Amino acid sequence: MRKKIDSYFGFAKKSRNLLSGYHTCTYGIKQGKIKLLILTEDLSENTVKKLAKLSEDHGVPVRIYGKTEELSKITGSQERGVFGITDVNFADVILKELDRE
């Protein structure tokens, strides 16, 4: 299951449907571009609360998945713990896989 989700992250990155980083994702949510927000398990509680509130206000689903180091490695980012999926289809597939776990 985990490999499947990791593959979807890689595909989303290659197709430019993945945003990463706190400020980039905050801006993306406000602009209505992000369809799914993924936060890593090791983010600070305060960051999770702020982003969860912002996402809720804009109707964006939020899920907690993986560790910062793992997802940064998969996506080619450096120490990022906040990821936004901008494509509806990728968001749906990843959401289904995450909810299945």
TrEMBL record:
Q: Where is the Ribosomal protein eL8/eL30/eS12/Gadd45 domain?
A: 4-90
Superkingdom assignment: Bacteria
The cross-references to Pfam families, in alphabetical order and at most eight, read:
Ribosomal_L7Ae
Q: Check the record and name the InterPro entries matching this protein.
A: Ribosomal_eL30-like_sf (IPR029064), Ribosomal_eL8/eL30/eS12/Gad45 (IPR004038)
Q: What is this protein called?
A: Ribosomal L7Ae/L30e/S12e/Gadd45 family protein
